[in-house]
Amino acid sequence: MSDVDAYQYEVSELGADDGGGFVxxxxxxxxxxxxxxxxxxxxxDGRQALFAALDALKAVDRAPPVPGTGRxxxxxx
Length: 77
Fold this sequence. Notes:
By secondary structure, this protein is of the alpha+beta class. Helix content is 27%, strand content 21%.
């Protein structure tokens, strides 16, 4: 299992029209998102989502994205 701490994330503030709060995304893992009323809550939610995504990849024998590259790991032969 890949370490969720190895992945960088970006925090953005949501405008009032979008309900307020914060959203966390992971550049190396498109589609993995966390939300929360505070940055701390959004990061915690994002980490849970990332853990679930990485766990799902492992369950189907797919390599996780390489942290910092935005690419899927290539299994060694």
